[in-house]
Amino acid sequence: MTDYESILVETTGRVGWITLNRPEALNALNSTLIREIVEAATAFDADPGIGAIVITGSAKAFAAGADIKEMADQGYIDMYLNDPFARWGEFGRLRTPVIAAVAGFALGGGCELAMMADLIIAADTAKFGQPEINLGVIPGIGGTQRLPRAIGKYKAADLILTGRTMGAEEAERAGLVSRIVPADDLLTEVAAVAETIASKSLPVVYAAKDALQAAQETALAEGLRFEKQAFTAAFGLDDQKEGMAAFRDKRPAEFTHR
Ligand code: CAA
Questions:
Q1: Of the N and C termini of the chain, which has fewer Cβ atoms inside 10 Å?
Q2: Which residues surround ligand 1 with Cβ inside 6 Å?
Q3: What is the tens place of the pLDDT at every residue in 6-18?
Q4: How far is the CA of 64 from the centre of ligand 1 (A)?
Q5: Alpha carbon distance 186, 124 (integer Å)
Q6: Angle between helices 153-162 and 143-151 (to 10 degrees)
Q7: What keywords were assigned to this record (predicted)?
Q8: pLDDT value of position 257
Q9: Residue 204, pLDDT score
Q10: What are the respective helix, strand and coil percentages of the chain, to the nearest 5?
Q11: In contact, 206 and 94? CB cutoff 8 Å
Q12: Which residues of the chain have pLDDT under 70?
């Protein structure tokens, strides 16, 4: 297992866990942390023994944003040439479903990292926001695009233009959160959800994630065409035969590809 400086990496069964571990900076996403998250996630993604990835932080902070101290003295040309957030593109293209398990602060880049996941499961202590406006910048890892798609233009504008934070309940009402759970139960609940996803047929899970992604990125007619192709392709898999035979036989499915 690779040695990492700012994350903890663990595998339980078919679930890969990435825990952000920069407590002194509330998991602020500096260049080391970004690189390590992307490397660990892409390694899990390449492993057919992994059917779900969980990304989490501490009880106090999922992540308090991009590292402000690292960015403070950068100029336009530094940001333009170095493109410090470019590697997040790889995280956004993972085929394996990702669950963000969020307790405490998920602000700025932390909220944006959660939004790159497929599910956001929040502790009742979670606080979401895009406070970049208070720093004289705007969100830079997809916040202005993913937040309105998740919660609508008007709620997103409220957060992005005022810089305020919202708690877990408001976030769930707005549609940013898949489920809220008591803080003490967060990792147990997330493990159960991750294991459930990881027990399905891996190629079918990939196809479902891909189709959900298409819903975010394409117009309806194109998305429906994409879905029809992916649905039809599932009938070429032995796991479709097994899933439907298991239903007829009133027994749990034993998928081959997992
Ligand atoms: N970058 C760098 N360091 C950070 C940080 C960040 N985003 N957030 C917290 N820290 C550091 C603090 O500087 C502090 O370090 P020191 O002890 O060395 O001073 C340590 O973490 C603990 O933080 P606080 O003492 O501030 O803790 P608190 O409980 O009083 O406050 C907080 C918590 C409200 C989250 C506050 O830390 C905060 O406002 N953080 C910044 C949030 C923010 O603005 N995020 C957006 C960043 S910009 C961005 O993300 C751009 C983008 O889209 C890519």
A1: N
A2: 25-26, 28, 64-69, 105, 107-109, 112, 131-132, 135, 139-141, 143
A3: 999 999 999 999 9
A4: 5
A5: 9
A6: 140
A7: Fatty acid metabolism, Lipid metabolism, Lyase
A8: 85
A9: 97
A10: 50, 15, 35
A11: no
A12: 1
